[in-house]
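Case study 2.
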Amino acid sequence: MRILFVLPEFPFPPVSGGRVKVFNILRYLAPRHDCDVFCLGVADQTTLDGFKIAIPDIGSVEFFPHERVARNIFFVVAGILLRSAPPSITRCANRALARRLSELAATSRYDLIHYDIVNMVQYHQDRVASVHSPNDATSLVYARHSQASTSLFKRIRFSLLSKLLRRYEDRRYAAFTKVHVVSEADRSYLQVRTPTADISVIPISSGYTSELPTARNATREYEPPASSLTIAICGNLSDPSIARGFDRILTGVLPGIIARFPDIRVRVLGRVGLSRVQERMRSFPCIEYNDRVDSFEAFVAQAEVILVPDETGAPGPKTRVVQAMALGKTVLGSVNAFEGIPIQDGVHGKVYRSFEECLSGLTQLLSCQKTRRNLGMSAAKLAAREYALDIVGPKYEELYRQATEKFHKRSPPMLSG
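Prediction:
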């Protein structure tokens, strides 16, 4: 198949959940199909070279720089007033990309176009088979943020964004040949409102093959002494649901852990959006903060426990949780952190429902090497069975095949001459 990926950002380096998903899809498909990439933004030559080294079979890559800020502000306002489109969508409006896609759609160059996340829906071309991959039901995510927010302003803001997104999803999703989400909860939510949309569920991938996770876990025989125990906390800390959970970890959990383990190290990975969270981090000498790392694998390898404090958010599996499990790491997370992952609490990881449970669970895990090892081995087996690239990759391949077949069945070929 000839597949074009239309993306809101360049998927390399794969340092965020959205990038990881696309990067892994391309890793699997590029050796088997002709895959090209269009994306908003720019990339330096070093980054582009790294991408092509990581995926040597990738086809052409084209960049479309963001429009000028002044024009974006105009379109944000116009989009909200005239199209009920959320700001994030109108900010991604790009005339050059729209023209390029329209030209290509008329040439039958591609069998299918993949439009990633809701911001790319505006570029849909009805003359080519299409897959839209929002990952999550985006309006549902904002509705959850609204319900969980303690600030009246944030509740109103998230509620408005959720309504705008819901209208946008209702109007646009049925036009795609196929829609892809990562969890059954997302599919059910969208299907009720857009019954004519053809929605499939494919989970995210860890990026590892089904043979690797157990082998990686087995190679880690050395356990550092208790004095050098490390906790890793990862997530988009500019996301309000994650930021709030992390803030509560700093105030309600970490002081108790430091009292029990005075030499504990805490490594934090993620963008921090709130200044008060940054200030609180600086008050703990044991915290090492990273807004990004070159290798997530190397980052988690140095930790005994991966702590994921998401409070509300998308109902589907979280990329970093799946990756950590695939690497045989012990994951302690909130209920939302494991939502969509078929784990057994205490078998594949540990779930906390309060910050008292978080403190006690973290204390138990840091105190017992055997418990950590057993949880990590079970987590690696589950991740290999559910999220390995050689398990998930063929599901995407089948999704694209079904989309092209469906499109051609309902769209008779155009007569030439």
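The longest strand covers residues 34-40.
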